[in-house]
Amino acid sequence: MRVLLLGGTSEASRLAALFAGRRDIDATLSFAGRTKAPIAPPIPYRTGGFGGIEGLAAYLKAQRVDVLVDATHPFAEQMSRHAALAAARANVPLIVLSRPPWAPEPDDRWINVDDMAGAAAALGPQAQRVLLTVGRLQLKAFEAAPHHFYLIRAIDPIEPKPNLPRHRVIAERGPFAVEAEERLLREEKIDVIVTKNSGAAATFAKIVAARRLALPVIMVARPSSASTPALNDPSDALAAILRHVKAPAPRGV
Ligand SMILES: NC(=O)c1ccc[n+]([C@@H]2O[C@H](COP(=O)([O-])OP(=O)(O)OC[C@H]3O[C@@H](n4cnc5c(N)ncnc54)[C@H](OP(=O)(O)O)[C@@H]3O)[C@@H](O)[C@H]2O)c1
After folding, report:
1. SS3 state of residue 5
2. For ligand 1, is residue 55 a contact (CB within 6 Å)?
3. E-assigned strands of the chain?
4. Atom 48 (ligand 1): residue with closest C-alpha?
5. From the CB of 34, is ligand 1 less than 6 Å away?
6. 7 alpha carbon to ligand 1 midpoint, in Å?
7. Which atom of ligand 1 is nearest to 77's Cα?
8. Cis link prior to 175 (omega < 30° from 0)?
9. Virtual CA dihedral for 175, 181, 184, 185, nearest 10 degrees?
10. Domain 2-99+224-242 grouped into CATH 2.40.40.20
11. Is 2-99+224-242's fold the same as 109-220's?
């Protein structure tokens, strides 16, 4: 059984770990190549785009892929759309693995917004100290609100420098601990956090720390979800793949 696993998430890494050492699954993990030094996976991997829907469909056929697993980040909207269309075109079953979104608790002070422009606007007219954890590709939206100070956290240093007059970048990779997040928020006198609702366990500590300090969190909602229902657990994804070994289905889980 040949599996192409679209990754860049901790769920994909966990599924790759389940594949490692199995003789019945020949899987390749695919990275976009955004992170300079991704953590080396325990299975073969490739890096870089496929060249759109056509390119991915051609890859699926050329590599004789039996099952495509989309375990990309919930905000990797384009890749997920391409995966669904290419799988249909190549007549390859698609399994979607995605973590559920975070849900607010009674003590949380979330300001829900639909997109990054909404997040920048929600910071308001008064200058604030903002912890910005939205990824380097989303910083442009905050150029519309240059009066705030932004403490930007990203996995790699950001080049070219963000076009924000008052900012500092901290290059750090999760998982983060609640105590350390609380310390960071206090020491940096952060007024508000901006984050995507990624649902990741590795980055949830900042949400708990904000709750403890009664800080507001501007929460950017996920893009509207794709048509294929998602599994949340890597072991459920493995079970779904194994079902395809026993009884190949035309498409879907
Ligand atoms: N968006 C986020 O907030 C976020 C956060 C953490 C991790 N990630 C990971 O970072 C990667 C890029 O995210 P994005 O939001 O920039 O994606 P995107 O906008 O949905 O995708 C843009 C293009 O990047 C290529 N690509 C994306 N994921 C790929 C993969 N796993 N393997 C090969 N090519 C891939 C595809 O190029 P072609 O059209 O040429 O095939 C795709 O059309 C994804 O793998 C995602 O899981 C994203």
Report:
1. strand
2. yes
3. 2-6, 26-31, 45-47, 67-70, 94-97, 109-113, 129-133, 149-154, 167-171, 192-196, 216-220, 230-231
4. 73
5. yes
6. 8
7. 20
8. yes
9. 140
10. no
11. yes
CATH class of 109-220: alpha beta
Residue with tokens 């899987």: 27
User: What tens digit of pLDDT does each residue of 32-78 get?
Assistant: 999 888 889 999 999 999 999 999 999 999 999 999 999 999 999 99
**Model-level pTM greater than 0.70?**
yes
My answer on whether omega of the bond before 41 falls inside 30° of 0, hence cis, is no
Q: Which residues of 22-61 are buried (b: 16+ CB within 10 A; e: fewer)?
A: eeebbbbbbbbeeeeebeebebebeeeebeebeebbbbbe
* pLDDT mean over 152-158: 95
191 pocket-lining for ligand 1 (C-beta < 6 Å): no
Domain ranges of the chain: 2-99+224-242, 109-220
Write the Ramachandran bin of 231: left for phi over 0, alpha for psi from -120 to 50, otherwise beta. beta
Output the CA 47–ligand 1 centroid distance in Å. 11
The DSSP annotation for 80-99 comes to: HHHHHHHHHHHT--EEEE-P
Distance in angstroms (rounded) separating the CA atoms of residues 113 and 98: 21
Which among 79, 116, 133, 222 is the best mutation to test ligand 1's pocket, defined by most ligand atoms within 8 Å of the CB?
79
Q: Name which residue sits closest to atom 15 of ligand 1, judged by CA.
A: 76
Q: Of all protein residues, whose CA lies closest to atom 9 belonging to ligand 1?
A: 8
Tell me what pLDDT residue 251 has: 56
Of 61, 46, 37, the residue nearest 7 (C-alpha): 46
